[in-house]
Design brief:
424 residues; alpha/beta; Rossmann fold; 2 domains; seven-stranded parallel sheet; six-stranded parallel sheet; 15 helices; 40% helix
């Protein structure tokens, strides 16, 4: 008969603790997909989803591409099918059950050259965004049950398509123009956000922070908004990078809202007391040049490594090697990069504005402007290995409680709130 914890002798209790630790280590090492192979749950009938996005791996610069890919992967495992409309002609990382379409597929379209891999609206020709939305508005809807648009890029076309075909429209907000511009929104993008939010039957926000913004700044009724957080899918653990230096990692876009300048200023305060620490900035974006100059001005050019855009293998190697992850965003609607770091067992320090802080208390949260506190927390984690291990393990457990399957189920629930006869 199995003994209760109270009946165990001290020796048996120690042996149980050791076995539990070994089991946790084995769980850490094996591939999560093979270990968690399970039959996907299907709720209601199978849907045909027309999804309008912007980014899709392998060409993506942030969490939007990760979200679209992971959500679509789980939806198709449940038996739903997706037609994904993108402004870019590919290549696309394939997902069984997902069909990709772009304006470049149309032989008579005059603007396929504007949609280049890794492109952005700033580099497009005048009128290309309008032509992309016109293409969406005229897309042959076929037997699709629901239209799902992500962020502002395809809202005008998606709203017109929903109106023309009487299909329900769902809009997911990953960030707002107020956040991206730090309170100085571009009127054109703000208008496109309003168009989608007003036309959508239901709106999905990736954090409560975003929901509050939609209510307070966009006038959206709270009962129209559903909060569905992002998730993380950890990969197999890679062999860490060689070398004995402790890596303090920032991974993400180099944009003003990300607060990478705070990361550099904190690095300058920590560097002298942590001679074996290397501060790594992985990512690309409009702030790259300014941050290089700032590192030189702060006197830490020899301690900060700017990697630029990294491959998937390089990203995983960094996550296997880092001692501390820092996300000092001025505004962070969620923070998928922080979730990925925590899933890799890396203790994370995030700003109090980060959406991920809503779903876990296993992180250090700091005011985005408090450089001294960021520096103090970095030093604390570098100085105390036991704290790093304990916080890393707790963070991993917290972000792995629910995954993309649960998020996909929640999203299907939103679809069925709008699709007639959705449930059997």
């Amino acid at each position: 008969m199995k003994k209760s914890p109270a009946e165990l002798t001290n020796r048996e209790l120690l042996e149980k603790i050791e076995l539990d630790a070994l089991a946790a280590e084995l769980d850490w090492q094996r591939a999560p997909e093979s270990e968690r192979a399970r039959r996907p749950r299907v709720v209601g009938r199978r849907l045909r989803i027309l999804m309008i996005g912007w980014e899709w791996p392998p060409s993506h610069s942030g969490g939007l591409g990760v979200h679209s890919f992971e959500l679509a992967t789980e939806l198709t495992k449940m038996g739903h099918t997706i037609t994904f409309l993108s402004p870019f002609p590919g290549p696309y990382t394939p997902v069984q059950g997902v069909t990709f379409r772009s304006p470049a597929d149309e032989p008579d379209e005059p603007f396929p050259g504007a949609y280049t891999i890794g492109g952005s609206p700033a580099g497009w020709k005048e009128g290309d965004i309008e032509r992309f939305n016109a293409w969406i508005a005229g897309f042959p809807i076929g037997h699709h049950d629901v239209i799902h648009v992500h962020d502002w890029f395809g809202t005008v076309g998606g709203s017109e398509l929903a109106r023309r075909t009487h299909r329900p429209l769902v809009m997911t907000i990953h960030s707002t123009e107020y956040d991206r511009s730090l309170g100085h929104p571009w009127a054109e993008i703000l208008h496109r956000e309003h168009v989608g939010l007003e036309a959508a039957g239901l709106v999905i926000a990736v954090s409560e922070h975003l929901k509050r913004q939609l209510v307070e700044r966009y006038g959206i009724r709270p009962e129209k908004i559903r909060v569905i957080y992002n998730a993380v899918r950890p990969s197999e653990r890679l062999v860490p990078l060689s070398g004995r230096r402790k890596i303090v990692l920032y991974l993400g876009r180099l944009a003003a809202m990300k607060g990478v300048d705070t990361f550099l200023r904190a690095a300058a305060r920590v560097a002298s007391s942590q001679p074996d620490a290397l501060f790594v900035v992985a990512g690309e974006g409009p702030e790259y040049g300014r941050l290089l100059v700032m590192a030189a001005h702060l006197g830490v050019s020899d301690r900060v490594l700017f990697l630029g855009k990294v491959t998937e293998e390089e990203r995983l190697a960094l996550l296997a090697s880092a001692s501390v992850f820092v996300l000092p965003s001025v505004v962070e609607p969620f923070g998928i990069a922080a979730a990925e770091a925590m899933a890799a067992g890396i203790p994370a320090i995030v700003s109090k504005t980060s959406g991920i802080a809503e779903i876990t208390d296993s992180v250090f949260t700091v005011d985005f402007w408090d450089i001294d506190e960021f520096a103090s927390r970095i030093s604390e984690l570098l100085n105390y290995p036991a704290l790093r291990r304990a916080m890393g393990a707790a963070g991993r457990r917290s972000v792995m409680r629910e995954g993309w399957e649960e998020r996909a189920l929640q999203t299907v629930g939103v679809y069925f709130e709008l699709v007639k006869d959705g449930r059997r």
